């Protein structure tokens, strides 16, 4: 290898999902350049050079055991990924997390909150079709992710999928069949990866001044997502708000409305807020923002439910897990839920 200044190292954490990588796949010369002599003891693979990119990306795969369908993943798995990134942080220039698509938006959102002072790219990706199938999207998603993690300064948790670069905590799974499985309906793309890679620099968050990465140690698990529906039973509302629940994402209609003629619902929300439950109001719509423009929305804010603005339910849920798990007073937790911490929501003064 002639120019070591251009060598970037990426750690790939393989957690499972449809992706289905087996060791033989990296014998594939679209994923490994056998002509590049890499010291064997490091178990590094070399991404073949890509036209237009001057960095040479070397990567190492850390495979979890067992590999999990992402439906079986939760807070402990987010913690494991975050801790592994932190342990290896100084040794690598970027990180790729291969993940099942079903809960990928939750994991990407959670990691964005859990990794404080993140100054390197963490790219979460997966696939709709396993890597060993002819028409797979896995190779393209992995190569794109390795390029972003190895060649670009993006100090964020992001998602790369089907040639799109998205902010992790703005991402939602929008299609369970198509290759274009993810979108960020309330935030512009961070970039596109086609014949050329275009990074939307104005949307990338600045690197933190404090370069010391820290990882959240505790996540709150007593959370619920309460989706308002016509004729919703009061028992459903009651059980979503009762002890030991500490945080609730309220998925309301349109711009934040609930049936304001159901006074018993409003009373239960008020009692929960008085008990210290943090409730965040999010819209059921795919895009747009919560705003108390109708009575049916104002009544929610009136009892102390917080506006989630344009946050996704996945980001609101994982932000609650992070904020409620942190060791700060209740009023600080409420403040944190209102702030835009990692680009997850639009906050207007
Ligand atoms: N495409 C996928 O990866 C779906 C799979 N059920 C998972 O989330 O693990």
Automatic annotation (TrEMBL):
Q: Please write the reaction equations for the catalytic activity of this protein.
A: L-asparagine + H2O = L-aspartate + NH4(+)
The residues annotated as the active site are 18, 101
Q: Which residues form the L-asparaginase N-terminal domain?
A: 9-203
- The EC designation for this entry is 3.5.1.1
Which terms in the Gene Ontology molecular function aspect does this entry carry?
Answer: asparaginase activity
Kinase among the record's keywords? no
* GO biological process entries: aspartate family amino acid metabolic process
Q: Residue ranges of the Asparaginase/glutaminase C-terminal domain?
A: 224-330
Q: Which domain of life is it from?
A: Eukaryota
Q: Per UniProt, where does substrate bind? A: 70, 101-102
Keyword line: Hydrolase
Can you tell me which family this protein belongs to? Belongs to the asparaginase 1 family.
NCBIfam families from the UniProt entry: asnASE_I
The name this protein goes by in its record: asparaginase
Q: Which organism is it from?
A: Drosophila guanche
């Amino acid at each position: 290898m002639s120019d070591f200044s251009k060598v970037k190292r990426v750690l790939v954490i393989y957690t499972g999902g449809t992706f289905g990588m087996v060791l033989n796949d990296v014998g594939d010369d679209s994923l490994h350049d056998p002509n590049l002599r890499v010291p064997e003891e490091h178990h590094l693979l070399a991404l073949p050079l890509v036209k237009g990119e001057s960095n040479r990306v070397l990567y190492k795969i850390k495979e979890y055991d067992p590999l999990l369908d992402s439906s079986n993943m939760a807070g402990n798995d987010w913690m494991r990924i975050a801790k592994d990134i932190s342990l290896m942080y100084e040794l690598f220039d970027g990180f790729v997390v291969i993940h099942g698509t079903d809960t990928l938006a939750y994991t990407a959102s959670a990691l964005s909150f859990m990794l404080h002072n993140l100054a390197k790219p963490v790219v979460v990706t997966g696939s709709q079709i396993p890597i060993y199938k002819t028409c797979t999207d896995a190779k393209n998603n992995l190569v794109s992710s390795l390029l972003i993690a190895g060649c670009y300064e993006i100090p964020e948790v992001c998602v790369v999928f089907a040639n799109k670069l998205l902010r992790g905590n703005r991402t939602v799974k929008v299609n369970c069949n198509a290759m274009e499985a993810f979108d960020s309906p309330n935030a512009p793309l961070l970039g596109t990866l086609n014949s050329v890679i275009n990074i939307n620099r104005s949307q990338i968050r600045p690197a933190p001044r404090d370069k010391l990465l820290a990882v959240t140690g505790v996540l709150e698990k007593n959370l619920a997502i309460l989706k308002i529906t016509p004729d919703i039973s009061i028992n459903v509302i009651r059980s979503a708000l009762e002890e030991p629940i500490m945080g609730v994402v309220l998925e309301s209609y349109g711009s934040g409305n609930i049936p304001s003629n159901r006074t018993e619902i409003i009373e239960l929300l008020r009692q929960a807020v008085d008990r210290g439950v943090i409730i965040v109001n999010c819209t059921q719509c795919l895009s747009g923002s919560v705003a108390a423009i109708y009575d049916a929305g104002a009544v929610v804010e009136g009892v102390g439910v917080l506006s989630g603005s344009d946050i996704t339910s996945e980001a609101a849920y994982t932000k609650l897990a992070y904020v409620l798990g942190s060791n700060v007073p209740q009023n600080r937790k409420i403040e944190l839920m209102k702030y835009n911490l990692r680009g997850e929501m639009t906050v207007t003064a």
